[in-house]
Amino acid sequence: MITPRRLLIASFLLVLPLLDAATTIVRGPYLQSATPTSMVVRWRTDNTEGSVVSYGLERNQLTSSAKAEGVTAEHIVPLTGLKPNTKYYYTIGPAAVPPANAEKKSAGEDAAGKNPVNSFTTPPPVGPAKPTRIWVLGDPGTKNAVQTAVRDVYYKFTGNRATDLWLLLGDNAYPDGTDADYQKAIFEMYPKTLATSPVWSTLGNHDGKSANSLTQSGVYYDIFTLPSQAQAGGVMSGTEAYYSFDYANIHFVCLDSHDSDRTDTGPMMQWLKADLAATQRDWIIAFFHHPTYTKGTHDSDKDSDSQGRMNDMRAIFLPVLEQGGVDLILTGHSHVYERSWLMDGHYGKSQTFDAKQHVKQSVSGRADGDGVYRKPRARTPHFGDINVVTGSAGHASAKPVPLNHPAFYLSLNEAGSSVVDVDGLKLDFIFLNDKGEKRDWFTIVKE
Ligand SMILES: [Fe+2]
After folding, report:
1. Exposure check for the chain: N or C terminus, fewer CB within 10 A?
2. β-strand 165-168 against 132-137: which pairing, if any?
């Protein structure tokens, strides 16, 4: 006899496969560890299923596919054998997409749980110059209207100009860097950029509340796939906590100012020295969370502030970076914008700053002002670098802050993000505030 109860069970069993088909993508896709010939595509689904990326050179011809074995909700698919500096279209799902279906999908006729066609451009061959746009976000993860405004100002500014790569300077997801914090502050905030531009991150103190650099575990290390094996250039660090990579004629160095050994004989320092000695790129851009100098929401003169991490980065790591010929140092942590002169050799507290000794070129760096900064093309130790604190992509300080560190040409208590454009031997830097105003800019030229 068919009782109502049996009928209910039977209909539930019939519906089960449909429920399974309704698996949805809840995170991503996002792009990691980009190299001229490879890309790691990641995403998350609400149920476990297969992991396949279908890709190709035309939107409606996704003729190649790559997959990860097994079923999972956390999908990580490396694409290999790609052509450098080439635009690829791709879509993600549990199985390869017949090429003929891709066009339909892109037109918004997605079946339940399916995802539209996105695209990315692989990095160019390492060495030769290529105009490169880099978006820099320090301390973005407030999840609030300021973070949204800073994002939208940049989207309007860059328009159809692709973002070749973007940097997260730590404190990416407040308050505790949990998976739920990252979901709101990163994955729901920047879906468009995550799907089209590779993102590279450094660990902040708030991310460090849910992660451990020594054991390479926790949310931060679960979310990011970073090149511990020198997959993207540079010298192998053996850890995702600090690493380097190349893009065209730029060498990027990521340090962990929060949770790794910062002594002058530690593994991070040994690796940094080897990495700087080995690189042949025209430009070196270093990034980490704790600033070398600041008088914003933190004070780099106070030994107790941030348990001495700012002191360590300035007194221990900055001399090595400057010996290695670093051009630009990008940091956050202090929720302000502060930008130095072209400077060298200032490793003490602010009262030991001596403009005559430490400022190498006392101009604004502006072509439309008193002149750009000039450096020789050949890497020259201690020729001068610009230190930037750009830690206000999620909020500026609510209270007045001193903003009086003498190393800085300009200090602003304003929310915003920074844009670096490298074109051959010219580097243009811009700070855009949350109202869309270009509040600082400078240029370094190598000749
Ligand atoms: Fe911080």
Report:
1. N
2. parallel
Residue 332 near residue 140 (C-beta atoms within 8 A): no
Are residues 137 and 117 part of one domain?
Answer: no
The CA distances from residue 62 to 27, 33, 75, in Å, are 22, 22, 19
* Distance from the alpha carbon of residue 382 to the mean position of ligand 1, in angstroms: 28
Residue 285 lies in a domain: yes
How confident is the model at residue 4, as a pLDDT? 56
Indicate which CATH number applies to the domain containing 103.
Answer: 2.60.40.10
The residue segments making up the domain with residue 111 are: 24-121
pLDDT of 251 strictly over 60: yes
Q: Supply the pLDDT for residue 113.
A: 41
In the reported structure, the alpha carbon of residue 174 is separated from the centroid of ligand 1 by a whole-number distance in angstroms of 10
pTM: 0.93
Mean pLDDT calculated for residue range 157-169:
98
pLDDT at 109 over 50: no
How many CB atoms lie under 10 A from the CB of residue 100? 10
How far does the centroid of ligand 1 lie from the alpha carbon of residue 85, in Å?
Answer: 35
74 and 206 in a common domain? no
| pLDDT for position 188 | 98
Ligand 1 centroid distance, CA of 292 (Å): 13
* Per-residue pLDDT tens digits for 283-316: 999 999 999 999 999 999 999 999 999 999 999 9
Q: Is residue 289 domain-resident?
A: yes
Residue 195 lies inside a defined structural domain of this protein = yes
- DSSP class of 351: G
Number of folded domains in the chain? Answer: 2
Residues 385-422 pLDDT 10s: 999 999 999 999 999 999 999 999 999 999 999 999 99
The CATH number given to whatever domain includes residue 416 is 3.60.21.10
List, as one string, the DSSP characters of 32-48.
EEEETTEEEEEEEEEEE
Whether the Cβ atoms of residue 429 and residue 341 lie closer than 8 Å to each other = no
40 alpha carbon – ligand 1 mean position (Å):
28
| Same domain for 353 and 431 | yes
Q: How far is the CA of 74 from the centre of ligand 1 (A)?
A: 28
The alpha carbon of 141 and the centre of ligand 1 are apart by a number of angstroms equal to 11
Q: What is the pLDDT of residue 276?
A: 98
Q: What are phi and psi of 314, to 5 degrees?
A: -80, -50
- Give the pLDDT of residue 21: 57
Q: From the CA of 206, how far away is ligand 1's center (Å)?
A: 6
Tens of pLDDT along 262-273? Answer: 999 999 999 999
430 and 370 Cβ atoms separated by less than 8 Å: no
Q: Which residues surround ligand 1, an ion (CB under 5 A)?
A: 171, 204-205, 333
Looking at the fold, whether 166 and 64 belong to one and the same domain comes out as no
Cα 445 to ligand 1 centroid, rounded to whole Å: 31
**Ligand 1 center–CA 357 separation, angstroms:** 30
